[in-house]
Task: structure prediction
Amino acid sequence: MIKRLSPDEALASMETLCARSEMCSYEVEQKLRRRGLTQDEIEKVTDSLVDRKFIDDQRFATAFTRDRYRFARWGRNKIRSHLILKRIPRQMIDEAMSAVDLREYARIAYQVIAARLRSIPADMPRYEQRQRLLRFAAGRGYETSLIIRILDTDKLWDSRKD
Result:
């Protein structure tokens, strides 16, 4: 069982946590709620953290977006849906998404699809390979138009012959 924290203990705990990794206000509220704080106490702690820049949802959205497309290799649709789940306002999400380098993003999408293509049997009919790649890339959150553009490149299919 989790010990109930006093507001001062909760504040100190959240300061430490937020200093170590970027967190959004919703995540902090959830953690405080699990520790038994009342809604008033949660608001006071989060307001203090926001005022002192331990929490900044815009900064969180930008860092989350950058990290997910570069390191986790997620597409923008998946990133957007996860930010919505974290209750980030749409305007902040749009601003974070606008910071995505589209050339780098397309290059990463190509690499993800090319890597998946190597795991698909070469003797499978091309249309089935395309379907599998389309479903896979859409599941990773890439936009259909980008996926189709990549699947229509000869470079992708020629890379399989190497």
